[in-house]
Amino acid sequence: MAAYLPLFVALPLAAGFACLLIKGVAPRATPWLSVASMLGLLALAVGAVARGGVEVTFAGDWGLRPFGDGVWVSGVALVLDGLSRLFLLLVAVVGTASAIYALRYLAPEPGRPLFHVLFNLLVAGMNGALLAGDLFTLYVFVEVASIASYGLVAYRTGGTEVEAAFKYLVLGTLASTGILLGITVLYAATGFLNLADLAAAIAAGAVPPVALAFASGLFVLGFATKTAAMPFHAWLPDAHPSAPAPISAMLSGLLIKTLGIYALVRVFYVVVGMDEQVRLILTALGCLSMWGGVLLAQAQDDLKRILAFHSVSQMGYVLIALGLGTWLGVAAALFHAVNHALFKSALFLSSGSLERVTGTRKLSEMGGVFRRAPATSVGLVGACLSISGIPPFNGFWSKLLILIALVSGGQYLVALLAAGAALMTLVTFVKVQRKAVFGALPARLAGAREVPATMYLPVLALVVLCLLSGLLWPAGVDGVIGAAASAVRSPAGERPAAELYIESIHRSPSR
Q: For the chain, how long is the longest CA-to-CA vector?
């Protein structure tokens, strides 16, 4: 019985509730509660990775129901397998870096206790979605995380922030409505919400093909919007410049992975099935996102908007790899999703530091920052090298693995498009480094100073992880990434590996 699994949700919820209680009497303690919460989650995630295997626990008991040959279903399942374990570790790593960064970044702002309430609620929602063993619980936690993110985008309550949050709210609500309607269709056809039982019922032909296709289309629409895949990306370029830097790191580094990519993989590879039509749609969305994002980024002068459009572009790589439907494609997609979380979080945190140093987000008004803020500049350059695919940083290896997977799957044209988009990404971030870090120092920045250590050390730590995951990537693909890919697709690529997931829930001693 994996009784510790609810702690992944309970710990940030408790921290957020504590922040709410003490915000009037001890507001300076609220940032440290977030740091403590994230460090606790990091310890839990590292322990979970070390244990391996599939762990299941049930919350509640709604009565036993017969299914199949002596199989019984009860309560809400929380399931930890290789896929959820990988993303829980990712949430803990990026969340810890963001919480430490926020210690000084938000220090001058009077509303920071409420920021930390929403921050912990966001983490709790993401962790709950990663552990959910049934579709409705997945939907509930997706909504918890989404609502918290809407509030965090509007945190500074200016006109621009509120407008961006409202746009995000409208598009996010439409996506959530589509997801809920898809869940309703499957529930009406099978009577099940549990992922394992739904997968077995769909495999047995309990859902009419038309209903299954309709539900699949709704899931693609909903989760593609959460992923910010083009053309469902309109909320992201406005949300990022409006949100505080730590939240931009969480949105791009984590939220679009946990509520988008993870949910797509879990629903289609484990439950619904990755058929040819879905694969073609994911590939088309991926190609459009890769090139649309990178081209729109070329026209931007605001650093955070550049990074936002590159989040759209980088998710395109993940989608085309998932569209292959092979174990290598899934492994490459997950590897790039992890790498993107690391280097894009470092980039967004660096953008917050640069704005603090220079007083602007416009590249045209920066220059020569290395002379005044060397630690911030080193962090930015390292993250730029990683997203640009420069070896030995991790971005190079995951893009290479995606190209290998595409060529192995006979997708030569898509591989050529991916290589071209990678080259355009390199062009963008050469420009970013040249305009922001190097060159002549503007006269108005003569008195600029480095940001506090709690702001540049998390960035440098993420960059070190980018370098280490690049140097050690074969072990990572064979280890944590391989285990995550094997949780949804067999290494031979012959059948989904969902049987282990299903059997683990049905045979759990905690039911």
A: 78
pLDDT of residue 43: 95
Tell me the C-alpha distance between 337 and 485, whole Å. 12
Task: Report how far residue 17's alpha carbon sits from residue 1's, in angstroms, rounded to the nearest whole number.
Answer: 27
> In the numeric block, which tokens belong to residue 241?
């410049």
Q: Phi first, then psi: give them for residue 214, nearest 5 degrees.
A: -65, -45
Cα(179)–Cα(200) distance, integer angstroms: 20
Q: Which amino acid is at 201?
A: A
Helix (H) / strand (E) element for 111: namely none
336-375 pLDDT per residue, tens: 999 999 999 999 999 999 999 988 889 888 888 888 889 9
As a whole number of angstroms, the distance between CA 505 and CA 197 comes to 9
Segment (H or E) for 66: strand 65-67
Mean pLDDT of 248-260: 87
Q: Residue 67 phi/psi, 5° resolution?
A: -150, 125
Kindly give the residue spans of alpha helices, DSSP state H, lying in 228-299.
Answer: 235-242, 245-250, 256, 263-265, 276-298
pLDDT in tens, 280-289: 999 999 999 9
Name, in order, each residue with C-beta under 8 angstroms of 197's C-beta and a sequence gap of 6 or more: 67, 73, 190
Q: Are the C-beta atoms of residues 439 and 74 closer than 8 Å to each other?
A: no
Cα separation, 511 vs 506, whole angstroms? 8
Question: 82-105 and 327-358 are packed helices; what angle lies between their axes, rounded to 10 degrees?
Answer: 0
Contact, 428 vs 366, CB < 8 A? no
Confidence of residue 497 (pLDDT cuts 50, 70, 90): low
Find the DSSP H helices in 6-64: 7-22, 30-51
- Residue 158, judged by CB atoms within 10 A of its CB (0-12, 13-18, 19+), counts as exposed
Pairing of strands 71-73, 65-67: antiparallel
DSSP string covering 126-163: HHHHHHB-BHHHHHHHHHHHHHHHHHHHTTT--HHHHH
Looking at residue 471, its amino acid is: L
| Out of 190-199, 202-211, 438-447, 494-503, least confident range | 494-503
Domain ranges of the chain: 314-483
Three state DSSP letters for 340-402 = HHHHHHHHHHHHHHHHHHHCCCEHHHCCCHHHCCHHHHHHHHHHHHHHCCCCCCHHHHHHHHH
- The reported pTM is 0.91
Residue 495, classified by CB atoms within 10 Å of its CB into exposed (0-12), middle (13-18) or buried (19+), is exposed
